Structure formats: structure tokens, C-alpha cells
Amino acid sequence: MTVRDPVCGRHLTIDQVTASADHGGWAYFFCSAVCHERFLRAPAAFADAAPAKATARQSEPRQDA
């Protein structure tokens, strides 16, 4: 599984993720503390600009009936 850092745009494997943050019910993953801190200062600026499927996953697992 790969994710994209919403701040710098870098594609990461789960092993490369150094930090994560939740915003608006989604988990976002980061390549460095610098990107993580930039996101925390203005999460809406990065979350709104990022395509959800490429950048984040839902924080809660989906449960189908």
C-alpha cells in the first residue's frame, strides 16, 4: 500500500511514513516531521487540495452489513 504526503506530494510506502494526523475524519501520512508540522499549522489548506483516495484513508474502518 502506498500513500501520498499531502504537503510535499511524495509517494510513500507504509514503512516510510514518519508521522500521521487526522483531519475531517481522514488520516493523513507524512514523510517527515517538517511536512507533518506544516500540515498541523494549516490542515485545511493541504487536505482540501489533496485527492482523498491518493492521500488519505478513513480513520474508522468501514463496516458493511
The tally of strands reads: 5
Rg value: 11 Å
Shape verdict: globular
Distance between the termini: 25 Å
Strand residue content = 25-35%
Layout of helices and strands:
Elements: E1 2-4, E2 11-13, E3 19-23, E4 26-30, H1 33-41, H2 43-47, H3 52-55, E5 56-58
Antiparallel strand pairs: 1-2, 3-4, 4-5
Your description of this structure?
The chain has 65 residues and is α+β, with helices and mostly antiparallel strands. The chain is built from three helices and five strands. The protein is globular. The N and C termini lie far apart (25 Å). Residues 52-56 have low confidence and may be disordered.
Fill in the keyword field for this structure:
single chain; 65 residues; alpha+beta; three-stranded antiparallel sheet; two-stranded antiparallel sheet; 5 strands
Structure summarized in a few sentences:
By secondary structure, the chain is an alpha+beta fold. The protein has helices spanning 33-41, 43-47, 52-55, and strands spanning 2-4, 11-13, 19-23, 26-30, 56-58. Strands 3-4-5 form a 3-stranded antiparallel sheet.
